[in-house]
Amino acid sequence: MSATDVIDPTDLAKAPSTDSERRRSARSFVEVQDLNAEDFGDFVALEDPDAGPLASVTWAELKHLSEALALALGELGVERGDAVGMHMVNRAEHAITDAAALRAGATPVSFYYTLTEEQLSYVAKDCRTKVAFVDEALMPLWRTLRDKLDLAAIVIVGSVGEVDGATTFEALLARGKELLAEGRGRLDEVAGAITGEDTATIIYTSGTTGPPKGAVLTHAGLLFNVRTCLDILGEHADNLHRAKQLGLVQDGGTYHQPAGARGISYLPLAHIAERIFSFYTAQYAVGRTRFVRDLTTMAEVLPQVRPLSFLAVPRVWEKFHSAITTKLQAESGLKKALGLRAVEVARQRGVALLEQRRPGLLLSLQHGLFEKIIYSKLREAIGLDQTVIGLTGAAPISKDLLATWIGFGVMISEAFGMTETHAIIAYTPPGEPRAGTVGKPIPGVEIRVADDGELLVKGPNVFGGYLNRDEATAEALVDGWLHTGDLVSLTDEGYLKVIGRKKELIITAGGKNLSPNNIEEAIKTKSPIVGQMLVYGDDKPFVSALVVLDPEAFPVWAQQHGVADDLAEAARDPRVLTEVERAVREGNAELAKVEQVKKWTVLGNEWTPDSGELTPTMKLKRAVIHDKYRDEIEAMYRG
């Protein structure tokens, strides 16, 4: 099938079972890839329409390509334990390089695309990068680093010619194929020696509280999380009303994802959530991964792929929702009224389900009508009509946003974890969400809530430590328990509720401990024009906030309301300030009095990783923002 073919769920259901004992006993992803090549060799593994001859790569071809590239890496001097850096967009070459590095006995390390020269220099030195695979557009950065790093080679991805002595991906792969034709060398010996405790990758933390730390993650830890989450999905598939129709295969009373089911890789592969949900899960479940290099094309790609599962951080779900409501607001008459009513009915039904209440008869009748005339068409237009389950994590998602998507017919499960737990600590059983929680601890993992409310975790998912950071490792791991830094509570059903990060809590002048995330999420979701928000209140008599307008939704809103779409000018416009005031007022209504925002300032600029206020994973760098906007913050407490 080509990249634009529509999947027939009936064809998927006929696919061979991926739930075999051999797969469950695999010790490494190299072993998993070999099983895929043997059992599903003709199934497409990678799709990347912009990759030329690599636009469609089967599992058999992936094994061949990775073996060839592994031999070429060995000729460059890459040995067991060496770091192979990958600094590129989501593309087929990333997956091939990752697989090749493992086959060479090396450690693949992905770097965030948006890293500055200083940040890139730090992480590349920290893991002692031996060979770097680099998008052609990023070569200027690496030219300046070449003399600072002990590199055996820089490999340019996306270039057809040699640049400043660096080789190209195509040339290195061609050399590897020559070597493979001459013999397998030590390929089988190296692959056979890989155990579950060997390093599968190093993921650098986002650096919200200091320099990034390299978390050393193992094959065993990643495979444990993948298997466990797929098992949870299978056990609870009866709760997914479209499970059978959309391709989940039943085997022995449990559902599982069929071979060939499509997924999308578009979030940074340097982030553990993306790697485990799109990259590692696809390998274990024999999925078909479509790489998205340019996020602006997602609206076109999703309907082409129609994924069986879809991971999006809350910000992405917010953007989809905002696009829907903004489009409806631009309509007129009956079409506008029906559309907006459909969104409200979806939200109300979702809230009822989250709160374990039975929706009223009138609400149920309206929802049934809108399912036929609006929701089903909406899912199809977005490309989520074959999505059995949506996933979200990495940041809090608001109750109303989660409820609305559930009402639209997209069952979203929250996953909660951290890099140090190979991504996952808790996972919401499909079809069993609970308002304000992030799911139940996954089977096989022990949790404990310390006296101060901090979550402690022990289990096969806990990492062994940070690279070159013995002191930080000793602080994080105490007697086998990982100190997560997250403050939590447990419901009577065993669901986790996250209160906030210990280091991010606001302690007011009155001694009240407040979670900034809860306050920010309550307000941000009340208006499409509120993009980012930071609340402040340390040692202060009340909570204040900095507000940043959404660079995508705001221009549409501005056009509708006759407002200039220049952010600096808009930050002073009375109509914009009135809209922000409305969002603050409505958000405050959901908060305790001590949490309510009393004063706020609308900023005339955007926050991005490049401007320094956000990490590459779009988390707020609170300390940076506190310092950068100290004058604006203090002005809200004067007079």
UniProtKB/TrEMBL annotation:
Pfam families with a match to the protein in the record: AMP-binding, AMP-binding_C_3
Keywords: Fatty acid metabolism, Ligase, Lipid metabolism
GO MF annotation list: long-chain fatty acid-CoA ligase activity
Region (Disordered) location: 1-26
InterPro entries: AMP-binding_CS, AMP-dep_synth/lig_dom, ANL_N_sf
Domain AMP-dependent synthetase/ligase: 36-467
Listed PANTHER family: AMP-DEPENDENT SYNTHETASE_LIGASE DOMAIN-CONTAINING PROTEIN (PTHR43272:SF32), LONG-CHAIN-FATTY-ACID--COA LIGASE (PTHR43272)
Family: Belongs to the ATP-dependent AMP-binding enzyme family.
Name listed for the protein in its UniProt record: Acyl-CoA synthetase
